[in-house]
Specification:
disordered N terminus, mainly alpha, 7 helices, Four Helix Bundle (Hemerythrin (Met), subunit A), single chain
Length: about 220
């Protein structure tokens, strides 16, 4: 079993094999990322979400643009919390099933080949391609409360934080997990983490565009 040690921001050492800088080139994080950089990015995303939700009324959090056809800020956060919880569970299960056979590694996350790289990059904002959400991660239409929506997102982020710390010395490119949405599709854990990072950036960007909308009802 993976140990349940916690990690705080900045506790991981950044691997020299993957120098990107001070999180200024976020697009590069979909092709190469160390555990330390991934934790830094989770921390940045947490701050982004807190700013997004800060001082919002529940009505504003639930407001949907395009006449109700696009997601609200609350829906974006719920979608990320649910998706990340399912992915983290599937990746954790894969490591625990292979306990004793997991190789040690450099700790650098890279996509498993060109198809994975292109798919991960297609998630980056601003979107150039639309994807239909799977049924199990389509958020309900309304009823979100600001504190609860933010807390659910942050808890999912913390579980990812813990997972990264617990697996920091493993070769996550050698372990594959079952995609929780596509039967028969298996991704490397490295690819899964990079995908989560890009997917977070996509929907936090979407939530920001909602808040910047001219019709947004305000706090």
């Amino acid at each position: 079993m993976l140990s349940l040690n916690l990690i705080s921001h900045g506790q991981l050492q950044i691997t020299a094999a993957c120098k990107i800088g001070h999180m200024t080139a976020l697009a590069d994080l979909d092709t190469c990322c160390s555990p330390g950089q991934f934790v830094d990015e989770l921390h940045r995303q947490n701050q982004q979400a807190q700013v997004l939700v800060g001082n919002l009324s529940d009505a504003a959090l639930n407001w949907q643009p395009n006449g109700g056809k696009a997601w609200s800020i609350g829906q974006c956060l719920e979608h990320l919390a649910t998706t990340n919880t399912l992915y983290e569970g599937a990746m954790r299960d894969a490591i625990e099933r292979n306990e004793g056979h997991v190789l040690s590694g450099s700790g650098v996350y890279r996509p498993a080949g060109w198809p994975s790289r292109k798919f991960i990059q297609s998630m980056e904002p601003p979107p150039t391609r639309k994807f239909r959400a799977f049924r199990k991660i389509i958020p309900k239409a309304s009823g979100y409360r600001a504190e609860e929506a933010l807390s659910r997102f942050l808890r999912a982020q913390q579980r990812l934080n813990e997972f990264v710390f617990q697996s920091r010395e493993m070769d996550l490119g050698s372990i594959r997990f079952r995609n929780p949405f596509l039967k028969g599709v298996r991704l490397t854990v490295s690819s899964g983490l990079l995908l989560i990072g890009a997917h977070n950036r996509r929907h936090l960007w979407q939530a920001e565009t909602v808040r910047k909308s001219a019709e947004f009802p305000g706090p």
